[in-house]
Amino acid sequence: MDPVSVALLAALAGGAGGEIGRQAWVGLSTLVRHPLRGGQDADDDSAVSSGEAELTELERVPADPVRAQALSTALALRAARDADFRLGLERWHEQAALLRSGESKVDNTISGGVFHGTTLLGRDFSGISFTTAPASPPPSSPHHDTPSAQG
Questions:
Q1: CB atoms within 10 A of CB 70
Q2: Phi, psi (5° rounding) for residue 26?
Q3: Contact present, 74 and 49 (Cβ < 8 Å)
Q4: What is the distance between the alpha carbons of residues 142 and 98, in angstroms, rounded to a whole number?
Q5: Using CA atoms, how far apart are residues 143 and 10, in angstroms rounded to an integer?
Q6: What is the DSSP string of the chain?
Q7: 3 HSE (CA, 13 A, CB side)
Q8: At what angle do helices 52-60 and 18-32 cross, to 10 degrees?
Q9: How would you class 98 by CB atoms within 10 Å of its CB: exposed for 0-12, middle for 13-18, buried for 19 or more?
Q10: What is d(CA 84, CA 9) in angstroms, rounded to the nearest whole number?
Q11: Which of 69, 81, 86, 151 is most exposed, with the fewest beta carbons within 10 Å of its own?
Q12: How far is CA 75 from CA 4, 5, 29, 33, in A?
């Protein structure tokens, strides 16, 4: 398994990715907090970090690449010694692919005319409300003839 990207860990700890990112961070946190299981050298498990301390430190200071690297290293070492953890980490890593691949990127475009009124751009809005004034009619243009009400 490839090591978990330091940039991905730092981004998730810092709240990137909106709801998808939050869910990915919760999933990783849950996985890391599962107890260590014996692996190839079960007698020497005290030398292997569960990753929980590194996770907590990265949560505390998400912009610190040294803390993100420490968590990435702890995850790799634990995965090398605990097959169940490795499988869980691989599954988590696949699910986090949406963030790594940029599929969660938002790209809004408005074009093709003159628009009047409120416009909201974004992605994945939930649990919020917006109050806006009623849209006013577009201003009259002196260049267009107004149809006559007379027949």
A1: 20
A2: -60, -40
A3: yes
A4: 51
A5: 56
A6: -PPPPHHHHHHHHTTTTHHHHHHHHHHHHHHHTSPP---TTGGGGGGS--SHHHHHHHHHSTT-HHHHHHHHHHHHHHHHH-HHHHHHHHHHHHHTHHHHHTTT-------SS---S-----S---S-----PPPPPPPPPTTSPPPPS--
A7: 14
A8: 150
A9: middle
A10: 21
A11: 151
A12: 8, 11, 11, 12
Q: Length of the chain, please?
A: 151
Query: What are the residue ranges spanned by the domains of the chain?
Result: 6-101
**Token code pair at residue 126:** 């939930």
Amino acid at 90: E
Closest by CA to 39, choosing from 92, 86, 73, is 86
The residue type found at 98 is L
Amino acid at residue number 94: E
